[in-house]
Amino acid sequence: MSDTEITKKLLSACSLCPRNCGIDRSTGKKGFCGMEERIYIARAALHMWEEPCISGKKGSGAVFFSGCGLRCCFCQNHDIAIGSRGLPVSVERLSEIFLELQEKGAANINLVTGAHYVPQIIRALELSREKGMVLPVVYNSSGYEKVETLKLLEGYVDVYLPDMKYMEAELAQKFSHAEDYPETAGKAIEEMVRQTGKCEFDEEGYIRKGTIVRHLILPGHTRNSLKVLKYLHETYGNDIYISIMNQYTPVRILEKYKELNRKVIKREYEKVLDAAVEMGIQNGFIQEGETASESFIPEFDYEGVEKNTP
Question: Where is each Radical SAM core domain found (predicted)?
Fold first, then answer.
């Protein structure tokens, strides 16, 4: 069976993400993720705002895919998560984008929210590696992933960068319509750690292998954050790094969830950091100063998506 045939089979009754919507995306119909078979990208450029071991001074070669299988009401990348921004590209063009980011000096290839395109991404990585792409591949994820889909990525992804958004099922249902998020993300991260093992870094401090789990604190919900940190530390100890983020930005007014219409205050962040210290978390990243700024949200202006021609 050819790569194209395998892709069409996987998308014909799509179950790549935990939504298991069963839509035949190969015919142009859109799944829960909001996407059909064609790959849509909103930006492919050097990104300086990831964790220091991912962006560093070089920048991470971030490819922002349109669509998402989780679609949180507070999504920081709302415009692309709902699929309203993005240009279609072929698998061949995606492989070229990886090579172009390498030529620009990227520290890695950073696949941002690509679960619904995993078969196409795998083929693009194969093509780019055949032509000399040697950068580590980072899989940047909401954490809401199927273990079966992640297993397809074994050998293709070097670093997993998932979120762990919730340990409270009721909160997951309220904000993401995904009551099963804690259990599903827990199993997904277990598979990610199985694949990558402990974190490894090169002589310049860039991560080459491993799993970094992000947690974005939501305003008014530090209890959930403490539960997330406790679970991650008790389960993985120092085998993973934990990135505790206070950069939540209300990107649009939410009438239904008014508590989300503000930033995380200093007292909330310090409460979570103090708890992390008390738990004994050593391998981690924190954000200092006024980080909750829209500058962390890139312009989805299609930079790097279309091929430059003389």
Answer: 64-196
